[in-house]
Amino acid sequence: MASSIFTSVTRLAVFIFVTSLVSCLQVISAINAPNLPRQGVVSSDQILRNLIDYKTYYFDQKIDHFGFAEDSTFKQRYLLADQHWHKDGGPILFYTGNEGDIAWFCNNTGFMWDVAEELGALLVFAEHRYYGDSLPFGEQSYSDAKHLNFLTSEQALADFAMLTEHLKLDLPGAKHSPVIAIGGSYGGMLAAWFRMKYPHVVVGALASSAPIWQFKDLVPCDVFYKIVTDDFSESGKGCSESIRRSWKAVDNLTSTDGGLQWLSDAFHLCSPLKSKEDALFFKSWLSETWVNLAMVDYPYEANFLQPLPAWPIQVVCKFLREPSLPDKDLLQNIFQAVNVYYNHTGNTQCLNTSQTATGNLGYIGWYYQACTEMVMPMCSNGVSDMFEPQQWDFKAFSDDCSQQFGVRPRADWATTAYGGKNISSHSNIIFSNGGLDPWSGGGVNVHISDSLVTIVIPEGAHHLDLRFNNPFDPQSVLKARALEVQYMKQWIKETTLNPGSQSNKIV
Ligand SMILES: *[C@@H]1O[C@H](CO)[C@@H](O)[C@H](O)[C@H]1NC(C)=O
Ligand SMILES: *[C@@H]1O[C@H](CO)[C@@H](O)[C@H](O)[C@H]1NC(C)=O
Ligand SMILES: *[C@@H]1O[C@H](CO)[C@@H](O)[C@H](O)[C@H]1NC(C)=O
Ligand SMILES: *[C@@H]1O[C@H](CO)[C@@H](O)[C@H](O)[C@H]1NC(C)=O
Ligand SMILES: *[C@@H]1O[C@H](CO)[C@@H](O)[C@H](O)[C@H]1NC(C)=O
User: Fold this and answer.
1) Closest residue CA from atom 13 of ligand 5
2) Where are the domains of the chain?
3) Pick the catalytic residue: 159, 327, 437, 473?
4) CA contacts within 13 A on the Cβ side of 145
5) Nearest residue (CA) to ligand 5, atom 2
6) What residues in the chain have per-residue pLDDT under 50?
7) Which CATH class is domain 1-235+297-305+356-507?
8) Which atom of ligand 3 lies nearest, measured to the CA of 252?
9) Cα(106)–Cα(90) distance, integer angstroms
10) Single pTM value for the model
């Protein structure tokens, strides 16, 4: 446990992404918190989930699209739903799977299910290689750098292109169907990049909460944690101050054995804290909890990363009104606050600092991607944000990657491959972002051209627009979804009128 920083103090401050606050101090965690709704509570999510009905298929993909020495194939999983599809022209909405089980993304992308009928669309959910069931080398896929070598966004995009072409050729009635890429988070980045790299395959893309600019020198490294902090500041008086002050209170207590024991009891921890190292780990677990809450601060009861009440940060902040309490009182309140996140069901026996979110995400795979292409600098200063000051230390990050995976990150590659801020030559991409979502800081929020549409949803957390319609949705997300559908219809119309050209401008 102690030999690698990764597996000891480190944790992936994650979720759909690694937030590298403690880049050199992060660990891979999975979850097993109870996911059952409280008795008698049936969320609207669940009622709507009854709509979800798909068939599962597998497609033989080349393991390496870009070289010829490795000629074998693997089975890529994809899901199809054709209940509403108008064959011979009805569009294909193609979800560009991200780092996890595709069935879970399918379940959490209600927007596609909600609009399928109106658009007469076929729904396709394509799993990303190395996640879920789509493992190029089976159980060996993660065994070493050699086997992980084909885990890149470029390979994933090529998989999507091959699968799309296959569907258009082999699926009766699909030949004339325009394809629209849709994705959220890293999946949103892939949707945008799919349109950029394969404009002859997809007529347009909806990239929701896609931080395609969260790369070196494109946005300030502190923007992410500042947005998290703003969410807490705006959800209750004293809230972010309480959290800012809590780090020192933890330090104070964990400087003695008695304090470590007190903290372990007060937080109902499954495994007591025993050392300074455990204390660091505990703090990064707390940070990750606040970050996750910011991502899923949805206006209604939901279960994405964890089962949570409506506007969970407001609920959390009810416990954090008094920042200047003595250490123990302050930390008792912090415990009540994190319990909102970990124990909404009331079924949690103890808090496990090794886990912070759903087990449907592929943490190790994402960490490998962060250690190769997806290098997203993050930092905090403790002043404009409520976290402990932490610089972005590329060298330490790189050393950790080398130790963990035997590879070193290439911090400039994503910008070379995908254009960085220089994307004005592309077209028909919607970038939607939620004002509450920390990932919006690395998203495209400025006007570039009329056919690169930017939509901001001020009351939205992480890809709220891709979720099922809900009676508690704010007006802003309803408007965003309506606009998204309008653009999709426009792209479809343009291709139907003008099948040769798929890159017309929106008028
Ligand atoms: C805590 O979580 C880790 C990672 O999911 C798991 O391996 C471990 O068994 C859990 N511990 C307890 C006490 O639940
Ligand atoms: C997706 O939803 C279906 C229907 O509610 C459920 O049976 C299945 O377990 C869910 N899968 C995942 C991975 O969440
Ligand atoms: C931590 O200990 C120091 C020194 O005893 C004290 O001044 C401070 O108030 C304590 N708590 C916090 C949150 O700083
Ligand atoms: C979770 O909530 C239940 C019901 O309030 C409580 O009995 C239990 O102790 C809580 N678990 C933790 C870890 O605090
Ligand atoms: C973007 O690309 C164009 C054309 O290659 C070039 O003229 C321009 O300087 C680039 N802009 C940036 C910000 O790199």
Assistant:
1) 422
2) 1-235+297-305+356-507, 236-296+306-342
3) 437
4) 11
5) 422
6) 1-42, 502-507
7) alpha beta
8) 1
9) 20
10) 0.90
